Amino acid sequence: MMMILPFLCFASVFAQSGADVCLENSALQLIWREGKNGYQLQSVTLNDDVGKKEHLTMAAQQRTILYAKNKPLDRSTVVYDHAGKLIHFPDSQYRYVIPVWSQSLSPVSLNTAGEVLHYQPTIAASASRSTLRFQYENEKIVLSEEWNLDPDHTHDIRVQMTLKAKQSGYYSLSSPSLAIADRQQFQWAVIPGLFQGAALNPDFVDAYAYGHGIPDRPVIVRERTASTLAALLTTQSGVTLATVAEPGTARDPWLKDAKTHADWKLGLSLMNRNKELTPTLYHPVLGEAGSYLNEEQEITFSFRYTIQKTSWYNVLGHIINGIYKFSDFLKLKETKRSLTDRLYAMYDYVIADSTSKWRTVNYKNAVIGAQDYLGGVYGSEKDAMKNSDYGAMWMLARLTGDTTLKQQRLPAALNFKLQQQQRKPGFFYGSAAGQYYLYRSQQFTEEWGPYSEPIGTSYYMLMDIGNILLFEPDRSDLKQALRKAADWLLSKMHPDGHWEVAYDNKSGRPMFEDVADLRPTFYGLLVAHQLLKDEKYREGAIKAANWFVEHAAKKGWFLGVCGDTRFAPDFATAQSIQALLDMYTLTKDPRYQTTAYQVARYYTTSIYTHPIPSREVKRVNGTARQDWEISQVGLGFEHGGIMGSANHHGPILLSSHAGLFVRLYGQTKDSLLLNMARAAVWGRDAFVDANTGVASYYWDAMNKGAGPFPHHAWWQLGWITDYLLSEAAVRSNGNISFPSGFITPKVGPHRSYGFDKGRIFGRSVDLKMKKGLISLDNAKIDYILATNSDTKELYIVLLNNSVDQQEIQLKLDKDQSQRLFGSEQRGACLLNADGTDEIRMAASSDWKISLPATGLRIIKISYQ
């Protein structure tokens, strides 16, 4: 640690020669000393609440400008590992990954481009202890810096750098290096959306492509998959230093009337050019727009540092809410179509053969049914079929009582599921044969190659069949299939509790051995134990979950489930949160709950928090849209990082994590999780197809609906229901609750409902969907229906999904109402969120009701 030398902090216009200059408030003290080459930062001291001082370690190379006379090459360069061996990655079949991976190997990305101009300011001026100005000039540049302690955030230092060119060329301003951490010992480092970990990882591909730890090279990444515009570093002593771009610095993904998501205005790194571990930002990016200057032209870069003796997550929350005003986004939401309305529209969508692309074919003397899948599938001749969310299918049939679903869709979908299991004796007996069925070649296959993944068996055998069994618990054929799948999964688990990522279908040899199965594959054994009550599955789940905790969750290292991006970390990370919570329910081991909460904090870095949404009017395919309507803020990745789909398409609208985040808020009172859930869900009408209620999958598709993915409607039915029921449970303090099923495969942690009775203020009720039973005149209000047949009661749970008080007119269809119990109304009352009677209402079919901001009210209607 550095000793603080005696100094004089001058407040005159210009500091005296040889004297120290400083910035100082109750929390921070920064001291610069003038030497023969200029002013050098000597110390950064942090004062905690009890008067203890923390002295940070200074960087050796503190100030850097990058310069290039000619534009740097934008093509990929050859990269070697530390043994001098050429790195070949990825394989040629990964056509979605190759372009972005190549971009990430450019000299600018690898931070090898340009000439390095090191400098130290030669003039310092100070008007107060909270403001400091530096100046520097050489034959190429005139540079000024203004440093201000933020009066609203005592741990923040705001900096504005201005560079004037004396020679034409390309320039990139780098944030000065305040302090560094030991490369061998630090608590945590993270660029949200790209890298995280507690150690440098010398395996370049593992760190750079998969975000497993921190690359040990000073790479510079793009803002397009940086979920929050900051680099954060927590030292071994627990001090978190973050360098944060001021709002407006980075690209706007839809600047005016077209996608500008890939523009590169801000570079983020966890090292300076000298390879010292310190959060560093670059603007403009060398060779990119704004970096070329003619003589006398200027560029400006505004950013801030925040230095606190607290966790990286607390500092991240400060950046998201304090600097980027995330929670204010909810105030802009003007919902035009309620989530409930979308559910009923998608109910129509999935019933109609034409819109849902439902197809049945004969396979091995059975009629199997699924939806056409028009995306890329290995071996497909545009003949792939897929079912996505079996829990949602059975849930919708139970809630609506729909005969088309019960008599036509579910039997064919069930046959599809049973035929999806490997029945041929041998290595794969009992496993899943593949996600997709190809009706021309009459075979099941995986999406991206002739291989089988253990997590595929957890997904498409154990979790899917498990959800069906919740609704049809007496199906012996399903139980038999479940046991075969669980036995196969258990047999392939290594003694320490881990699985291979995949096996080659012909040889049975492991594949993708360069990465570990850092996914919640163990969840399949939990499902098997819950339904079959066999202790060996419980023991296997515990062993595998323990391995996952140690090798994935504690390290912040995860693997995804999308083969087309070679398993880049994705929404399976969110699944692991719910899987760990379910392990806690099973075992009561608090380690699983604690770990789940930690993984949830990691997953907040998969949610966009920039740029700040506004009411600025933009054009989208000829339609005027306010900026907030098409904002990426609050939306999560399919997969981010260097090679995920968010590089091309931005985030996704399928927000399976929303219900989980609401439930986690109920347990932890972490408001960031609740606000993220609501920001993802509320007011997303600009992405919803008007006719079907189906949202587009990728952000850049805007409102084109399901497109080539008709099965996605089932996932949307599932996650929206999960979100609404989670909100009802939290807002009622658990007095409105329904038993939840198992996690759905692949896209996130949402769960199915309706297989068993729930409770509303102690009364046993059945969850229902009755299209047309009620109508509301306010799209900000969603509702849930439930009935009690014994007492002849209808419950209408009303949710105000806005931050303002709302007034509604609710109308009840008289004919449908009478058919519920075959009798007329006897009376009604309006209940508060705690279940107390607020207003006794006469029997009617038309009520005016007021709901408080983000509030809940319940209408209980009694029948004769």
TrEMBL record:
Residue ranges occupied by any J domain in the UniProt entry: 458-537
Entry-linked InterPro entries: 6-hairpin_glycosidase_sf (IPR008928), DnaJ_domain (IPR001623)
Ordered alphabetically, the record's keywords are: Signal
Coiled-coil stretches are: none
Q: Which stretch is the leader sequence? A: 1-15
> Does the keyword Signal belong to this entry?
yes
- Any GO BP annotation: carbohydrate metabolic process
Any idea what this protein is called? Glycerophosphoryl diester phosphodiesterase
Q: Which species expresses this protein natively?
A: Sphingobacterium puteale
